[in-house]
């Protein structure tokens, strides 16, 4: 991975989690901690992050509500969200995971649609307050203060009892062989329950996360019904996923 790609990855993680650790980044990116420290030093020098002992903090305020300046790679995420909107129908019950791509999806949901949305993301729930016809159910649990999502046993219990038409999964890594993977164990487990509780599972993924893997598995490709990226469906990068029988939008 090139230096610019590494640094963009670090900035994306900070926008999602507000804090990163050098040793974890080194493992995720398969480089030395010295390389990560040099990346953090440069990003700090450019005023993009706040470097602290063992890692870095975001210089952005947390996304308690929609804030377009804090969304990395926003144009691609809007393109993905616009495709995903076509799958949402009147009267559906939907589960939405966290992440900035799903935040764009929540923003673009038509205001006249009467739907029920479950989420464990505080930022997405706040965004959905602007949608008067959407019944929004935020699932309570232990608060992950970095990602602003709820996790834990209660989240799993609630999700396991839902009969959803569709779930939209934000994705940290998507690989033909490894399927969907996540950075954190608790979120990876919650997403497995989301899939099991939904008739259709849709993964929203920017192209930079294709053919990448994270530490914790979520599911194999055969458990996903659709992949949505900002790319055209005839992009060669998507061919391996289509050969696995996946519907690519």
Automatic annotation (TrEMBL):
Keywords of this entry: DNA-binding, Repressor, Transcription, Transcription regulation
Record bears the keyword Iron: no
Domain HTH deoR-type: from-to ranges: 3-58
Signal peptide range in chain numbering: none
GO terms for MF: DNA binding
Pfam families recorded: DeoRC, HTH_DeoR
PANTHER family linked: GLYCEROL-3-PHOSPHATE REGULON REPRESSOR, HTH-TYPE TRANSCRIPTIONAL REGULATOR SRLR-RELATED
Protein name: DeoR/GlpR family DNA-binding transcription regulator
Organism: Namhaeicola litoreus
Organism lineage: Bacteria, Pseudomonadati, Bacteroidota, Flavobacteriia, Flavobacteriales
């Amino acid at each position: 991975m090139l230096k610019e790609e590494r640094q963009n990855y670090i900035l994306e993680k900070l926008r999602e989690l507000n804090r990163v650790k050098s040793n974890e980044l080194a493992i995720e990116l398969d480089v030395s901690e010295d390389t990560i420290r040099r990346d953090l030093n440069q990003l700090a020098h450019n005023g993009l992050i706040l470097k602290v002992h063992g890692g870095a903090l975001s210089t952005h305020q947390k996304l308690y509500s929609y804030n377009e300046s804090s969304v990395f790679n926003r144009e691609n995420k809007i393109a993905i969200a616009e495709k995903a909107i076509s799958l949402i129908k009147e009267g559906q019950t939907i589960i939405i995971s966290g992440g900035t791509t799903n935040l764009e999806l929540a923003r673009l949901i038509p205001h006249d649609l009467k739907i029920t949305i479950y989420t464990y993301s505080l930022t997405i729930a706040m965004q959905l307050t602007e949608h008067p016809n959407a019944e929004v159910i935020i699932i309570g649990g232990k608060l992950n203060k970095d990602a602003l999502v709820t996790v834990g046993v209660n989240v799993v219990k609630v999700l396991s009892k839902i009969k959803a038409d569709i779930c939209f999964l934000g994705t940290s890594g998507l690989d033909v062989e490894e399927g969907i993977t996540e950075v954190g164990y608790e979120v990876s487990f919650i997403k497995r329950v989301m899939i099991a509780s939904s008739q259709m599972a849709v993964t929203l993924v920017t192209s930079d996360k294709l053919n990448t893997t994270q530490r914790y598995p979520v599911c194999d490709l055969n458990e996903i019904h659709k992949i949505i990226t900002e790319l055209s469906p005839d992009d060669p990068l998507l061919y391996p996923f289509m050969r696995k029988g996946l519907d690519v939008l």
